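Justification of resources, computational component.

The compute hours requested in this renewal are based largely on the per-chain cost of generating structure records like the one below. Each record pairs the submitted sequence with a full structure-token output. That output is archived, and it is also reused by downstream analysis tasks.
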Amino acid sequence: MKRKPIQDIELVDNLMEGLPPLISCKQAQGLLNISRASIYRLVDRGDLDKVSFNMASTNPKKKSGKPTMRITNTSIRKLLIQWLTKE
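The structure output for this chain reads:
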């Protein structure tokens, strides 16, 4: 028996409850139960929204490293609902 869309949305809301607005790649992997490479593919396709920022050092002699990437909570929620309600 297929669940109703309202039940799917409630399920996703319960899963996402209490999570911060920006989710690490590792957290997104756990929520979506997919690989890191799949997370990056979904970001590249535009299915997940990312925010990138540098954790720059205040020391001018130190070079800043690679940007840190986070996935928006809302894009994960939207994707989960899309997957669950897809026929």
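The CA atoms of residues 9 and 81 lie 6 Å apart. The radius of gyration is 16 Å.
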